[in-house]
Amino acid sequence: MPISIRSLVLLCAFLASRAGAAPFDLAPAGAPPVIVHDGGGKTLGLAAAMLRHDLRAVSGVDAAAKDDLAACSQVCVVVGTAASPAVQRIAREGGVDLRPLRGQWERYVRAAVRDGAGRRILLVAGSDVRGAVYGVVDIGRELGVSAWEWWADVAPRRNTHPAVDGAVRLSAAPSVQYRGIFLNDEDWGLQPWAAAHDPAGDIGPATYAHIFELMWRLKANLIWPAMHESTKPFYQIDGNARTAADYAIVVGTSHAEPMMRNNVREWDSRKDGPFNFFTNRAAMADYWRRRVDEVKDGENVYSVGLRGVHDSALEGAATPEQARAATEDAIRLQRGILAHSLGRPAAGVPQALTLYKEVLDLYKAGMRVPDDVTLVWPDDNYGYLHQLSDADERRRTGGAGIYYHISYWGRPHDYLWLGTTHPALIRDQLQRAWAAGARKLWVVNVGDIKPAEYLVQYFLDAAFDARQLDRDPQRHLDAWSTAQFGPDVGAGVARILRDYYDLAWERRPEFMGFGQVEPITPNRRTAYMGSGGEEGVRRLERYTALAAAADALAQRVPFELRDAYFELVAYPVHSAAGLNARILDLDLAAEAARQGRPSAQHLVDDARRAHARLVADTAAYNGLAGGKWRGIMDMAPRRLPVFAEPVWPSYAVNGGKGCGIVYPFPYSADADRLAFVKGVPATAAVTLSARGGAAADWRVLDGARGIATARRTGTLDAVNGFEQRIVLRYDGSDDPAVAFRCGGRDLRVNLRLEPRGAAGVPAEHGHIVSMAAGSAAAQPDWELQPGLGSSGRAMRARLDLRPRAPDHLGGAAPLAYAFDTTTDGGATLRLVALPEHPLAGDGRVRIAYSLDGGPVAVADYTTRGRSDEWKRNVLSNSAVRTAALARLRPGRHTLKVYALDPGVVLDRIDVVLDGAPAFYGAPRGIDLNH
Questions:
Q1: d(Cα 22, Cα 222) in Å, to the nearest integer?
Q2: Which of residues 692 and 6 earns the better pLDDT score?
């Protein structure tokens, strides 16, 4: 495309300005800067105060904040909109072109210039007031101030010579227009904390000022206020709405609160009658009209539609058809109210309909929604988007958005305590939304904000700059960790948090009771006991190692960041480890007693200590920063059984005697042996057990071959529950052997060597072959999803794949997996996927597969509504389809997997042969993709 001479001149001038720009010194000796905010009312005054705070926090420099350039004589930071006369004058004198800002949303130009009076000026010119604010935010980021400086006590590193880039820059436009948070389920953290710290005695202006500044720093612009019955409604607390306006925050309301109303506390059924649109339409219309009249001068996104008083279906409808017609009628009425109160056509008023729960069913049943209303697609509350816009819906003038949860109260189980949604899942879901054109509005349910800080930032960073979604999510976590804790500690923080999210992927801590809610059921024995307890032991070992790594890293954290480290890393890691320990140790105790082992009571004592640590750590959190966070952390939201201190059982000492060896998988074909793959170095563990409550010394006997142990001697006594787990390291040799002397007896470890498969081909081990989906060679129909799934190497069918029938696979590019087996007998093929939903409303979630060139079969993972299968799937982050194989002959096998529908995510393939132990999760420790 030819370029005009005028454009070439402008481009050259722009490049020259960048090439010649030097760092802008914000604190030259003897000349503290003056921060001048021109126009923008209270908003830019607050932005100037924030920058003043950041400069003082970083360098100790006390800059002045003024609203008149005349107050600055030498070094100035001028913040304003491009429409400001002062900004226009400075830009003209400094040769800065402001034309790229015309008609733009939340962008800014920044440049270091000198004006006619010889003053050095860092100019921040916004296309609008939020654009100017984001210019100030980026200065703070360059200075090293974290978004979590107040909310997580991330103290910035000191710099006595603060400077920023002086080159001309034009900020990128935000990827999503409205980017926001929903404060929800605030009953156990944010609301009790605010009640004790906010002068309003509730989530009032002081609290919202901190929240809004956090939103500024994360470049979010939309708030759905807290709305539970425990909290006084947003508009009923004097100053809340004014504070939102001062911070230029767009106010909306959640899916259950049409027309800016908090029904749960604002609708008075004694005075107003039933919240029933069929019988009380006039009262409901007046209720909506009054609120719109009150807030019409603010910047709002109006939720439209009709539900019950709180998070429930609308009242009075006898059939879905009546509910659909009433919702359509209510939207027409609401749009009429908006047009009348705001004095302009409803099509010009930002409106959103969140298709949550039963509203999605009504929409799928044909409910008509005006074209200019933004359709907001929800996830299923557990991180999986229900559906997204099809080709026709993408042409709607109102566009589309998403509503996403990283905290949830409800069926099948809450997760309100710790932020454990895997970043790789968030990336997968946001990629889907972006690909489907849902770019108008993204809202994330953040619960109490703490301790989900990182997840909040990842979501909002991607909303502002969707290029984040093109990168491995680990890169974002690495950069974030370094930004909070510095290069010396950041890499370690990122590794710890990665393992924290990986462990929670298999089962969130809140789900470890294996019960459900609504109705609330008691805890039950965990599925980690299916192999006889070894899977539970290995999970605890991983958590123990993770907690130890967090403690070791804590010693390297600078003193001023210790509170931040506890909030962002240590507390969530220790809490997840502690709850797993309390629950799994009790299950292991019961299993030990069932097996007649002496360690049962010792494991109960371990569980009791784990619970005490949970209580102590939570108290420590609430005592941080001199009591700043008192009341913010509750380790038992809703007082569910999973959190409750259990009734501690008591186990008598077993009546046996003498030492014995306990092998890892007592309920399998390898109940009395330890298996290694010949020629493949590996580690495994056995347990020495002294029955009858009598202490016994043990040692490794001379003559061990090919096996090394971490310890060579020890004692089995009351301190260790008369048992000791001993890790054996096999070196790959042909004839390994090891034996122990324990309590006067010689105990030879029964070792079995399995044949090694061909190089690069997974082989059976422990009667299982387990293959990560991402171990297959890349194919055009599939894309690797780093970090996702139980292996961290999931494969996703392309999002733009056209659905195909299983009998039309010509041109399909399958994933191919070769593997070797040695057991001759029956087997089960397990195809483990993620519990995704169809991309569009009429789609499915299917793959096809063929084993050893046999017929093509279909695995359909589609679920409907809140079925029992869906509940199991979201609690385990897995969806499983199995095929029983009457006989699988030993030797080489080939499995081909075809994508039938877009967006299907395959996690792994397990080939489970007769005699294998039963695993809840991925068979870690026995999968060898060698």
A1: 36
A2: 692
